Amino acid sequence: MSSTAHPYPIGTPGKPWGDNERAEWLSRQARQRSYEQDVLAAADRLGSRFDVEEYGRVAYGQDAYPLVALRSRSWNNDLPVVLITGGVHGYETSGVHGALQFLEQRAANYAGRVNLLVAPCVSPWAYERIHRWNANAQDPNRSFREGSGVEESEALLRLVAPIRESALLHMDLHETTDTDESEFRPALAARDGKPFEPAGIPDGFYVVDDSAAPNPDFQQAVVKAVEEVTHIAPADDKGELFGSPVLARGVIAYPLTEWGLCTSITRAPFRTTTEVYPDSQQVTPDQCNAAQVAAVCAAIDYALAN
């Protein structure tokens, strides 16, 4: 059913938002959790084992957020580099907590084997408000290109620039939630003055490959490992997940660079976006975090072996 039948509560169907509509949308956003308590405090605790750096700051009104990354303390330029990003979409909780949990529980297994660079929460304003966009109604995960004007994306690009050409692996940890269909995609359609066309939410975990440079065996290794923790999303009646053809069990692909997605920011030969489904009756938040950790470990193991 299109947005003209049940229009989004902000704006006029068929007309892109202007400043007034964006201001109205912003006025409806409320802080629901604390980036300082959930992310910065965890980074401080991990500071005994990793170098913690502030790679930028974003400020919206009275709210200012340091952007933090953690890197291997014994950085060795002779070792391969693994980049892990979470919270590009702030509402996708296990991306943030899964990245931190990997550092707490499993990163030591890779000491002396890889250099780790982890940005656990790319979008802190959105994390606190459990939202997809930043305060300017911009989606960071369509903005990873120079000059995008999206502060969260541009700051991460600057952080990653020194390893852009040399990284072995990039894991970008995401979720697909029921609110994608009930709130975020309708809001996107309203913002852009387009009709909303429901697509359905995949029931389970899947990954996103690069359609311009697919790596199917790698993607399947990640899916196989995560299946030990949570269920894999089956294809729908059209053989698709979220409107994209299923290339293999639990695998779809997007044009990463064309769309300005986070996994386009390095030339790593191994890259994937994880998509955990936290709204399933079959999983708990702990399982969602564990699925992200399992995906990261499987990806590192595969990359090192291949």
From TrEMBL:
Biological process, per Gene Ontology: proteolysis
Annotated keywords: Hydrolase, Metal-binding, Zinc
GO molecular-function terms, A-Z: hydrolase activity, acting on ester bonds; metallocarboxypeptidase activity; zinc ion binding
Domain Peptidase M14: 31-306
Keyword Hydrolase in record: yes
Gene3D superfamilies (UniProt xref): Zn peptidases
Pfam short name (any one): AstE_AspA_cat
InterPro entries: AstE_AspA_cat, Peptidase_M14
UniProt keyword annotation of Nucleotide-binding present: no
Cofactor: Zn(2+)
Family: Belongs to the peptidase M14 family.
Protein name: Succinylglutamate desuccinylase / Aspartoacylase family protein
Taxon lineage: Bacteria, Pseudomonadati, Pseudomonadota, Gammaproteobacteria, Pseudomonadales
